[in-house]
Write a structure and sequence with these properties.
single chain; Umud Fragment, subunit A; eight-stranded antiparallel sheet
Length: 263
Amino acid sequence: MASYKDIGKTGKDEGGLLETVKVIVQALLIALVIRTFLFQPFNIPSGSLIPTLLIGDYLFVSKYAYGYSRYSFPFGNMLPKIGGPTGRVIGSAPKRGDIAVFKLPRDNSTDYIKRVIGLPGDKIQMVDGVLVINGEKIKREKLSQTEVAAGAGFKDRATFYRETLPNGVSYVIQELDLYGNKLGRNTQVYEVPPAHFFMMGDNRDNSLDSRDMSAQGVGYVPYENFVGRAEIIFFSVEEEGAAWKVWEWPWTVRWNRLLKPVN
């Protein structure tokens, strides 16, 4: 038979276990609220925003920056539209030059990240690699050239330019000499529809973005499809590394990119 002492001890253990479960549930609920309404982590799997964002970067995206749409929530493509014609509530529109995460318009479920180039009503064109906004060529300054990896053991030469948008936002883009898709250097004039945005990658010859209006492309991005604005890189690991391989961190982590603001 169990003594009164033994019974009391069992009850105490059960109470401690219950408290532990409560703490875990509360922590999960807090994390869910933060992820849904404030900040969501994303990692960069492709090189379309090189040199601004690198493969292996992990960043926080502010969910509140542009307000909320059905795509702010898990399984958003299965939810009804909210917020009237724009599909959003509480937020301000993306600004030219922002780096933003959005749902790919052709399936409304795949996460893409690009830079906001064209606002509703803008006319956007590329002429010999130079960005033209509303008939005006934007300022572009050549910075340097260097050899870069092109995949499968191949090398290419990249030329870097600093672009400055009409609102003063400045960033560096990359053009490739050999293996990039140069079709995007000369385009038609794109007129951005109301409540839509024109998105481009900084790796201009290796980016699937709004310049591709085909069924397999990106096209114009509805305001409703925006998930949030990229804010800060909280972790970064070399392309050949892996974040879960903690024992390799001393030589695979890009320490100089940690806590670096995204701009």
